[in-house]
Amino acid sequence: MTQATEAPTTGRAANRVRKRQEYIDTAIRIVLNGGLEALTMQALAREMGAAVGTAYTYFASKSALVAELQVLAIGRLTTTFNDAAPRWQAEMGRLDAKGKAEAGLTLLVEFAVRVPKALRDDFFLQQLLLTDGGRSIMAEDQATVLEAADSWMKIIDERLSEAVDAGVLDKANKAQRASKFAATLNGASLFNNLPEGTVKDLDGFTRSLMVDLLSAWGGDAKRLTRSAAKAAAAADKSKLAAPALA
């Protein structure tokens, strides 16, 4: 009796999980094709061939849906970096303690340089969400997004701390360095949304910009420039890879 009643329930639950993923995939396609403004619960239901009320059984609001898309985008980028960084560092050859700490930072920069081309959909979706200014996500849905963003900020903070411990960066004025590092990278990344060639050698510009920032925090510009070049060469040998968003 127990098995007979549990099997349909399990089947319905599995079907609901699959259907929910279809809604997410469809929402991503809508955003990639038309921007966040194009994503409404009505448009989502129409694309799914479902009633609007059915869409609301999967997501309480557009805000909740957009929050989930942002969490997914941040998570995919974080996971991809965590996969790529060890491979890239291995390609950089033997490094002393300072070299490893410098690589920890220049690999973050190189990842930001590569993402717009290698993971175009992920990057585009994340940039849309970053430039939305929080208009599409209500306060009650922001906690999950902040938690996901915090996981990425922790990676940056850990690598900056390792650089301080290794003597690569100075110990003074450490407050908000991770936020400044991330903000500078994001600012440079926004140039990818402009017509190609607007910024000459955008990749080189981004690397140079980050070397300047790290030098202002006590880093050795020549060593950091060499590390950035090694990181770029390593990334050329071991490409970024992630499954398509939808």
TrEMBL record:
GO molecular function, one term: transcription cis-regulatory region binding
InterPro entries in alphabetical order: DNA-bd_HTH_TetR-type_CS (IPR023772), Homeodomain-like_sf (IPR009057), HTH-type_TetR-like_transc_reg (IPR050109), HTH_TetR (IPR001647)
Chain ranges of the HTH tetR-type domain: 17-77
SUPFAM superfamilies for the chain: Homeodomain-like
Keyword Transcription among record annotations: yes
Keyword list, A-Z: DNA-binding, Transcription, Transcription regulation
DNA-binding residue intervals: 40-59
Protein name: HTH tetR-type domain-containing protein
Organism: Candidatus Neomicrothrix parvicella RN1
